[in-house]
Every structure is written in structure tokens, then in C-alpha cells.
């Protein structure tokens, strides 16, 4: 006889198996013992005969050994659960679970799926976190044979519920979520494919809708050896007909003329304050230290770019014009800015000396100059002070709250910061060896600061470069790795614009354009003047079948990077191709000089 107060257990069989107390404490059980408990849970109060359990899990052993293994398994389960949570009921021939002492998600799901009560369908779908015992790795053939029809029955119920929910859904985002979930369970389900096609088309994304049809057709051919149904084909033809209508080509033509014209003349000064930060010179006497001065420059640019009322030119255009002239007035004229920042960095050991000057581009007059001689630990304070003074000089009245937002730290470890700067330098090579070297630096940064979001974002970009350049022997795994790292970066710091950029880019390459746009909008909220963000947004719009919006976004981005617009021109080419203006598309593509799409600008 057992003593103690029996308490209720929560057994989860849908998706990953778990057995917990109602307080959330999980009981660790070996894999096979989990499977034994799961089999008993699925059979409820009836339980299973000892003979059946032996057939399922120890069928290849002799009878005496198999019976001993079953007894040992049951004893082990009871020992782990303890007397207060022992839910097993046994006799000489049968083993069952006391249904009063447990809640079982799979059985609750079945009951709710048959109910017509208000909200029961949604509660059932909330319970369905995956296929029955999806994580079970039991090799016994008889167990798999027993499990398969149960798994298929529950999956069928989930599919039926999702179809009903989908048919009643009247809001675009909900349709996309439900249809995507339905396709996870049943990739050939045409109801889900048609729902996505209709939703995308209703949002003006005809290209994405047509791509969904192609995915549907290929899956049906691969999995079932059939083509799409008549209903799906009719929808496809209707969307294709809509796409053939003229796409405001006069506007598209006008936009492209504006773009090409802007390439041939210096841009005018904007009404708001404008600035170009020239690369800080490396004065350390060691060429290998140039990564540090470049990184300092990029961080100051990034800090200034966060202010909506200041136009900040991208670094690549600055490099182009710097190679052509050192005359500050000419640089200001070519880039169309009123102010220029220049300076130098000397880094020796743990000491750093920074000089910085703010210059009026029209007159060449120095408006402000400062020297800093600090420990490396104070480099963040130096960056902050330079940014603050520039902002005060340019914008006059700047909200203190916004200044604090600009100067928030991404790490407190200067060595980790140094590693990230080295990693970014390697990324800019856009070579296979450069990507691997970048990862080593980012990994070192994470060893020093495991919560450094920028290091995770950099790692993600390195895997994306590998994927886009087709260097990987396992491209899908490489893209998945980039995605996981980007998600980690955003989870650590959802206010980090580069992290949002990395996640948006991974979603774009995964073909999830809606989510790519969501995260890009958040990145632009954080850093509205960032060329990379605007350029990627243009790419998302182009690939989503919105060519005119894509061109407008490219024009805006090119004002920030007027001398290095390769990525924007690439997307303009795509946009013009979509509208059927093939000669203009070719003209844009011919002006692309970059080595790769999404190469850092």
C-alpha cells in the first residue's frame, strides 16, 4: 500500500513529450520510459495489457527478459514520480493510468475537436503543438506501427479544425498564420494555398500570389503525382490577368528618370542638417589597426543616423569621393552635404587617442575640434561625446530622451567591442575566408559577453553571405543557422537596428516577405537614415511585387549613398522588369558594379 497525497500531473504528448506537475516542475525520464507512459496515456482508463506493452517495446527479447524489462521500466517511472504523483494502476495482466490524476493534452484535444462549444475549436488548436509524440525516437518497429495511425488521426483532426478556422477568418494576418500552420501539417492542402494566394493578391502582391501557386503545383506533383484542382487554376488565372494590367508605368518611368538624373549631377543641399563622416585616419603606424579607426567611423555614422532630422551619408559613397579628392569643399559639393567630420585614431596597447573636427563644407571653416587621450575602456564615452557635440552643433535643440537613445551601450566590454569591429572588417571583404575569420572574431566577442546582440547579428550576416554566394555545401542548413542567430540577436536587444536588419534579411531569403517587411520597418524606426535598411526595404518591396514603391525607396536610399548605389540599382532593375520595361531594367542592371547582392555599402 502506498501512502501520501496524490497530486495531479500534466502529460503533454502533442509535439515534444513532457510530464510536469501543475506547478511546472518536469520529471526527467529515459526515452523508452517516456514512450511507455505515453502509450498508457493514449489508452486512458483501459490501459494496455502487459503482453501488449512487451510487444510494443521489447518484442525482440525472450519472454522472461522482456517481462523483467517491463517491471524495471514501471518501477523506474514510479521512483521518478514519487508516491505523491504515482498515477500508475497495475495488476497481474494490465497496466493503466488513473485518469482522475492526470490531464493529457492529446485526449483533451480530441474532446474539444468534437465539441461545438464557443471557443473550443481555438482551444483545441492551441493544444496542438505538433504531431503526437513528434520527438519520440523509439526504434521498435511494432511501436512505430502502433503509433502511426494514432498520429495520423490526430493530425487529420487538426487539419479539419484549421480548414474551418481558415474559412471563417476575415483578417489578412490571421489568414496567413492559419494557412501557414495548415501547410506545415499538410503541404499539399489546396485550401491553404488558395487562401494565401487570395490574401497576397488582395494586398497588391500578385507576384507573391503567383509564386504560391507554383509552390502548390510543384508539391502536388512531387507528393501526389497530380496537378492543382480546377478551382486553384481558375484563381491563378484570375490573379495573372490582374497582374497583366498596366502598373502605373508613367510613374515608374518618371522615377527611373529621376534616379538616372541624380547619378549625373551633384545632389542639392537638403533643408535639414546634413553631414558626411570621413573615415578616421589610422595613425597607429600599424596597418593592421585600421579596422579600429574604420569601426569608430561606422559607429559615429550609425549614432548620427538615428536622428530623423539629420541626413547622414553612407560610408561607401564617402570612400568613393575620398579616393577622387581630398578637398573638403569638393567632397561637400559632390555628396550634397553642409558639414563634414574628419579625424584620426592612434591605438597603442590599452590606450587610444582620438582627434575629431567638424567642418563647414561650404567655407572649410572648422566649427569644432577636440582631442581625446583615454584608456580603451573609455572608447564608448569618446564615441558618445563626439556624437553629442556634432548633434548639438547641427540640430541645436535635440530632445534629451533621443540623445540617450542614441548613446545606449551595446556592451560594457571593450575587448568584446574590439572583436566585433574586427569581425565587421572581415565581413566587408565578402570572401569565403573572410566570413570564417569574421565568425572567429564574433565568437571571441560572445565568449567575453554572451549577451552581445551585435556579435550575434554579425554572425548571422556571415552565414547569409555564405548562403547567398553559394559557398555552402548545405545551403538550407546555412540559412537556418543565419535565421537562428538573427532571432537570438533580436531577442537579446530588440532595439538594435543591425539585429533587426539581419532578421529581416533572413526572412527575405526564406521567402517570408511579410515578416521581412515587419522587421525592416522596425529597423527603420530605430535608424531611419540607414542606407542598408532603406536598400533592403527596396528589395523586399521589389520581391513582393510592388515595383513603384520599391523604386521610390531606392531613390531615398541613394540620396544617402549617391556614389555607391549598386544594390539600389539592382532592385530598380527588378522593379522595371516586373513592370515589363525590359530595356530600362537592363540599363539599371548594367550600372551595377558591386560584387554581390547585399554587400555592405
Helix content: 55-70%
Per CATH, the superfamily of the largest domain is: Tetratricopeptide repeat domain
CATH level 3 topology of the largest domain: Serine Threonine Protein Phosphatase 5, Tetratricopeptide repeat
- The DSSP helix count reads 26
Largest sheet: 6 strands, mixed
Distance between the termini: 75 Å
Q: Report the count of strand segments.
A: 12
CATH structural class of the largest domain = Mainly Alpha
Describe the fold and architecture.
This protein is α/β, with parallel strands linked by helices. It folds into 4 domains: 9-123, Arc Repressor Mutant, subunit A (Orthogonal Bundle); 169-245, Tetratricopeptide repeat domain (Serine Threonine Protein Phosphatase 5, Tetratricopeptide repeat); 266-406, Rossmann fold (3-Layer(aba) Sandwich); 421-590, Tetratricopeptide repeat domain (Serine Threonine Protein Phosphatase 5, Tetratricopeptide repeat), CATH 1.25.40. Helices cover 60% and strands 10% of the residues. It contains 26 helices and 12 strands. The chain has helices at 31-43, 50-57, 63-81, 105-113, 120-127, 141-168, 172-185, 190-202, 206-223, 230-243, 249-264, 290-305, 315-324, 328-335, 379-395, 400-406, 414-427, 432-448, 453-468, 475-492, 497-509, 513-526, 531-543, 547-560, 566-578, 582-590, and strands at 9-12, 18-21, 48-49, 88-90, 94-97, 102-104, 274-277, 281-282, 311-312, 339-348, 351-360, 366-375. Strands 7, 8, 9, 10, 11 and 12 form a 6-stranded mixed sheet that branches. A 3-stranded mixed sheet has the order 2-1-6. Strands 3-5-4 form a 3-stranded antiparallel sheet. Strand 4 and strand 5 (94-97) form a beta hairpin. The longest helix has 28 residues, at 141-168. The chain is globular, with a radius of gyration of 31 Å. The termini are far apart. The model is unreliable at 245-264, 395-409 and 595-601 (pLDDT under 50).
